[in-house]
Design brief:
2 domains, 5-stranded mixed sheet, alpha+beta, 408 residues, L-amino peptidase D-ALA esterase/amidase, 32% helix, 11 helices, Ubiquitin-like (UB roll), 6-stranded mixed sheet
Length: 408
């Protein structure tokens, strides 16, 4: 079961003026489940995004990047059950067909539709099922449908992932609501499996694009479940401009900073939910690396720990076999690392220093922490002032079971 995710109630999710959402059961992979989402955007909604850097990126990623570069976007179209990745030119054509079908129903250009897919790779997209399901999704569109939308984009997720925030600016209330999906194949290199965050803030396009990169780097680019970067990752941030405050036009303004922090908070909450709902996860693990020379080396160390199957299985077993963490720090790739200067903590317990076991460390203290469902691993490199944090989970038997039977 997911690690300490409170039950999500539909009324917790705040509507965004200028956006409606509708879902349908198209039977793409399984019957009797929502697997199609349409998001309709009012005219002049600003749209910014970042996408997977996997070179085998999916057809919808290719098409979405093209459309985003050349059009004012009026709709997002998301299907689950089929990734439309590894499908060659036919996959791109299929993506364009479903965009054209939705555009015809909406009375807009096909280039004004952004497509997104998630599911099984190397299977042809069931275009007819998606096209047939579009009218029902459009008929279902309403402002307060964010909970249903979060359900519709799930694959191996156990729980829907969504969050809302409000901030006050220029005498106006600004609302932010986001949804995300992801549970396995999680080691984003830009964003998450799929994430959509919307706000009614008034901000120009260039600043919104700057913001989405920052948001990704401080949330979805700091999580890992299994170290696999998906072919379909995308994070989209929408700004409808309906809040009525003065337009944010300067990156160095207090208003930009306030909005960016709020959007990042929503994204970080969604990203942590993905880790908490990681396939088979029983532990939520924060890996914090402090006192590095720069962010890059801190990130190297953090991911070396977070990706290690040996470390992740030890956490599942609640086994304080913490020499595995020292080994991961050592192979992280820092060539001039002085291991005698490093300190390793498990929560508040000093485990290692001066190149070996801390003199006051006791196995029972490590065991106490390892028995918890939430654990912090803290590495102090003592090389500078940089730091970073990565969130991950353990590896259980269920991770193997889920992925061994993914297509069945």
């Amino acid at each position: 079961m997911p690690v300490n995710i409170p039950p999500l109630q539909p009324e917790q999710l705040l509507p965004i003026d200028g956006i409606t959402l509708g879902t349908a059961e198209a039977g793409i992979k399984k019957t009797d489940r929502k697997d199609l989402l349409v998001m309709l955007l009012d005219e002049n909604t600003k749209v910014a995004g970042v996408f997977t850097q996997n070179r085998f990126c999916a057809a919808p990623v290719i098409v979405a990047k093209q459309h985003l570069a050349q059009s004012s976007i009026r709709a997002l179209l998301v299907n689950t059950g089929n990734a439309n990745a590894g499908t060659g030119e036919a996959g791109i054509q299929h993506t364009r067909e479903i965009c054209a079908a939705l555009a015809e129903l909406l009375g807009c250009a096909a280039q004004q539709v952004l497509p997104f897919s998630t599911g099984v790779i190397m299977e042809p997209l069931p275009v007819e099922k998606i096209v047939t399901g579009l009218p029902a999704a459009i008929d279902d569109c309403k402002r307060d449908n964010w909970f249903s939308a979060a359900q519709a984009i799930m694959t191996t997720d156990i729980v829907p992932k969504a969050a809302s925030r409000q901030v006050h600016m220029d005498g106006k209330t600004i609302t932010i609501t986001g949804i995300a999906k992801g549970s396995g194949m999680i080691r984003p290199n830009m964003a998450t499996m799929l994430g959509f965050i919307a706000t009614d803030a008034v901000i120009n396009q260039a600043l919104l694009q700057d913001m989405v990169r920052h948001v990704a780097d401080h949330s979805f680019n700091r999580i890992t479940v299994d170290g696999d970067t998906s072919t379909n990752d995308a994070l989209i941030v929408l700004a409808t401009g309906k809040a009525g405050h003065r337009e944010i036009t300067r990156q160095d303004s207090a208003e930009f900073g306030q909005l960016q922090r709020a959007v990042t908070d929503v994204a970080a909450e969604l990203a942590k939910m993905i880790v908490r709902d990681g396939e088979g996860a029983t532990k939520f693990i924060t890996v914090q690396v402090d006192a590095g020379k720069n962010i890059d080396e801190c990130t190297q160390v953090a991911y070396a720990i977070a990706h290690s199957p040996l470390i992740k299985t030890a956490f599942f077993a609640s086994d304080p076999n913490l020499g595995r963490i020292l080994a991961a720090i050592g192979y992280a790739g820092i060539q001039d690392l002085d291991v005698s200067s490093i300190q390793l903590y498990l929560d508040d317990v000093l485990v290692a220093e001066k190149g070996g076991r801390a003199s006051h460390y006791r196995e029972e203290d490590g065991q106490r922490v390892m028995n918890q469902s939430e654990i912090t691993v803290r590495v102090v490199l003592n090389r500078g002032s940089a730091s970073t944090t990565v969130w991950t989970c353990d590896f259980s038997y269920d991770y193997v079971r889920i992925n061994a039977s993914y297509r069945s």
